[in-house]
Amino acid sequence: MTNTILEWKNNRLYQFLLLMPIIFMPLMVNVRIFPFVAPNEEPKWMLFTLCVLIVATLASSFLWKNKQQIHIPITISSALITLFYLLLAISIWISPNQVEGIIRFSFWVSTLIVFLIAAYAVQRHSQWLETLIWVSMLGLFVFCLRYWYGYMVDYSNPGYNISVLFSPIGHINFTGDVLIMLIPFTAWVLATHQNLAIRLLAWFSLTTFFTMLLVAASRGALGGVVLGFLFALLISLPHLLKLKWQNKHFISAGLLLSTLLISWLTFQNLDYKFRDLARMSASSVDTIKGIEGLKLTPNVEQPPLLGFWMMVTPYIHFDRSSMYASSTAMAFDAPWLGQGTGSFPFVYPNFSNRFTDFRDPLSSDRTFTTNPHNMLLQVSTQNGIPAMLIFIGLLSFFWFRLAKTGWQKADPLIIAGSMAISAVIFDAMFNHVFFNPASLFVFALLGGLWWGRLQTHEQKKTETKQLSFRGHRVFAGGILVAALLLSVWPTRWVLSEWHVGQAMHQRDLVQMSSHYQKAYDLDPYNFRAVFGIGQTYYRKKDFPQATKYMAWFKEIYPYNTAGLNMLGALYLLQGQLDPAEKALKEALRVYPGYQMAIQNLARVQQLRAAQKRQVLPILTPR
């Protein structure tokens, strides 16, 4: 321990290596850059990639200069983690869009790296945790100021999208996914830290967080926080009953309770809270109508586990149960290795409208669902049921270890971790915790903090078996090469998305075409870039080139109804009736009732009839 402390103080590379996730934490919750397609997400994915690339470079340099033997612990959990990532890697090559699989795999690797760094640092360097507290409290203070500024200044403006521009993190559910972890951590800081400045920052942030949850009314996040609090209270009972209350305890309790009271009073007096209440009321009405209208149609295909979905629909609402039912069918279609890492947006449309009684209302001819809003289905649909069982097993093991240690030892940080992981497990059954960059990064950083804290409590007398080997320079070079390779496609994708965002804001066809071309050159697997450049060639009436790109779009996004319809229309314009009919019928199979495809298919049939009469009318596809 003495050697590592000296190493921390004297080695700059080592310091920056361990501090890098802390430095990036405020950026991950605050950065928003327009005109990205998703300005709250894509820049954060780039930050995630950049953070890990810098960490890998520093780690490689440190290992190269310091001749140290490499030690890798061998435990059941480490073996399961290795198997989980192996399944993720194998599933890349199953996906119709394999580059998207590589990108998603790199983000999962980045998550593990940040988690391990945090777990290692908190065990060995007490000043690391203190640095995390200061940097995170300052970063969250900025985040809260920006939220209030946006709420008071932008929220009332016409056209303001409450769901997407809700906070610097983004969508109300994305924000809730992060807050469920920040609330326990910030509450721990407020209750235990004696520095006045830190307490003021923590109090302001925690009060704002509670207000944000009330405004957003994200059911998964609110339910997760309440459930997590009750569980944390339960495992705290042995310590609370033995506690000899002193002034510092009364002060901490008063500060925590005041955040709840002030946030509730603030919410009740916000000028524009009625907008959210109206949204919730409309949602409730739609849900009631959906339940009343949920009558099974005779002789039609039904999803797997039909009885279960019928039973839970009144509690989780039809928009969720229909999505889960369709996703379950997607998982059961490829149970062992899934449909492919990163494949959900590209394969799910083939299932979202398959079941007449459970058609996903969030999927249409213009919109698509990017993830199943459920961590079990997220993993099982893409990587198979075995991978899902490993993932939920590891997460449950983490939760159990926190709960057990929290019950046995009066450690407020461990109890805060129990609250957070309980909230994560609940919220991730309905939202995007392991899909959104901000929540994934915060989970990795704070999860690593809590795991490292566990290790300090559960040090065993017998040493853990380790795989030890020399060749530090080979290992250092391997880390750097792997990091560079895994960062290539995420970087190209983000830059490609930037040009797509630029193209979407252009009215001039030449400028639009230029940006779409640059986006395509950077990432030919970016479906938005491919579709965009196909559209520009269509508008230029260069139908062969447009067909070329839309045919490629079908390869990487095989069940997109808009793409299939456009491809069919292009074939029709060139008189190729057989491929036109095939594409249009496929569009209608994926999305029955798609009017544009129906009209174009009717034109194909009219043209066939006209050919028989040797009359060729001019028909313009839609």
Mean pLDDT level: 91
Class inferred from helices and paired strands: mainly alpha
Strand element count: 2
Biggest sheet descriptor: 2 strands, antiparallel
Along the chain, the helix and strand elements come as HHHEHHHHHHHHHHHHHHHHEHHHHHHH
Number of helices: 26
Q: Span from first to last CA?
A: 71 Å
Helix content: over 70%
Given as residue ranges, the uncertain stretches (5+ residues, pLDDT < 50) are 1-6, 280-291
Give the neighbour order of strands across the main sheet.
Answer: 1-2
Rg estimate, integer Å? 26 Å
Per the principal axes of the C-alpha atoms, what is the gross shape? globular
Q: Roughly what fraction of the amino acids lie in strands?
A: under 5%
How does this model look, in words?
This protein has 622 residues and is mainly alpha-helical. The protein has 26 helices and two strands. It has helices spanning 2-10, 12-30, 42-65, 76-91, 98-124, 126-154, 172-192, 196-216, 219-242, 247-268, 273-292, 306-316, 318-333, 344-347, 349-352, 375-383, 385-408, 412-427, 437-457, 472-504, 509-522, 527-539, 543-556, 561-573, 577-590, 595-612; strands at 70-73, 466-469. Strands 1-2 form a two-stranded antiparallel ribbon. α7 (172-192) runs parallel beside α19 (437-457), α12 (306-316) packs antiparallel against α13 (318-333) and α20 runs antiparallel to α21. The radius of gyration is 26 Å and the shape is globular. The protein starts with a helix and ends in a 10-residue tail after the last helix. The model is unreliable at 1-6 and 280-291 (pLDDT under 50).
